[in-house]
Amino acid sequence: MTGAPPLLQIEDLHTWIATDAGPVRAVDGVSLEVAAGEAVGLVGESGSGKSMLARTVMGLLPDRASTSGSVLFAGVDMLTVSEKARQALLGPKVAMVFQDAGRALNPVVRIGRQITEGMVRHLGISRSEAQERAVGLLTEVGVPDPRRRLSNYPFQLSGGMRQRIMIAIALACEPDLLIADEPTTALDVTVQRQILDLLDRVRTSRGMGLVLISHDLGLVAGRTDRVAVMYSGRMVEEGPTDAVFDTPRHRYTEALLASTPSLDTPRARRMRVIEGSLPDPRRPPPGCRFAPRCTARTEACDESGVDVLRDGVLGHRHACVHPTGTPGATALTKAVAADETRI
């Protein structure tokens, strides 16, 4: 991190969703920073709160959700700002690529209109100028015959093409921060590589901050500057990507790396899994939320308040009572090798 103030600064964020059985603690006390031009990976198994964290930043929460803490974007608190001011920021300052482009795109509106309407509204340009900019955007994201594609509907495009359209829409107003939520989900491996290369290229050329949400550790290991690991709504480890994957400190991070498939694993060997499941988000355990699944669990892990991030070397922080000291370089190498081989 540099001495400049972070582009995005999340402090002690809570996002709880009311239900008849009690509030779901989807995000429960998370802090995270993203600098301009920096790529930050957000990883964890399904249900860890990654997507809900992103939706909180964007203000895309259900009616029954309540929030506390702060989400500062360029000094503006996204949780307390007026709806009008928030709408002015979404698009030209911060944008999001959703994991399912087929559902995110409007099925009855042509691609051209979906790309240009944000530019007309936020940039104040004419529709004809926006149309030309849209052609340039589609060219930039690798869509062939871009002018003809503007008249297409989403159902007329392949999954990879729809994902490129989503990225074009997100980049249309040249945001300072892009949140990509599982941007390669359901895409074949060749298209996955192309989409990730595209995000890398755009981030580098525009100096844009990027939050890459994924459950694929190999993907995040090879394409981010820093990584944050979430579990059951909490941040359990955070730091430079190489440090987190080479020397994981939290037992959950270590378990995730150990369960990553590799090319040199003997066929007869059973794949390692993390036994058990996530705790009930309405009634999480008082101490470390990973403790019920952890092989290093002791009574100290069950004490309230022990799951706070502890400062470490070079910004590598973890929230483990019994941190592992076993280097995980082999696990990282295998994860990256598997990723590069697949895509």
UniProtKB/TrEMBL annotation:
Pfam families: ABC_tran, oligo_HPY. SUPFAM superfamilies: P-loop containing nucleoside triphosphate hydrolases. One of its GO terms (molecular function) is ATP hydrolysis activity. Residues 8-257 form the ABC transporter domain. Keywords: ATP-binding, Cell membrane, Membrane, Nucleotide-binding, Transport. It is a peripheral membrane protein. It is found in: Cell membrane. PROSITE patterns: ABC_TRANSPORTER_1, ABC_TRANSPORTER_2. One of its GO terms (biological process) is peptide transport. PANTHER family: DIPEPTIDE TRANSPORT ATP-BINDING PROTEIN DPPD, OLIGOPEPTIDE TRANSPORT ATP-BINDING PROTEIN APPD. Belongs to the ABC transporter superfamily. NCBIfam families: oligo_HPY. This is Peptide/nickel transport system ATP-binding protein. The lineage of its organism: Bacteria, Bacillati, Actinomycetota, Actinomycetes, Geodermatophilales.
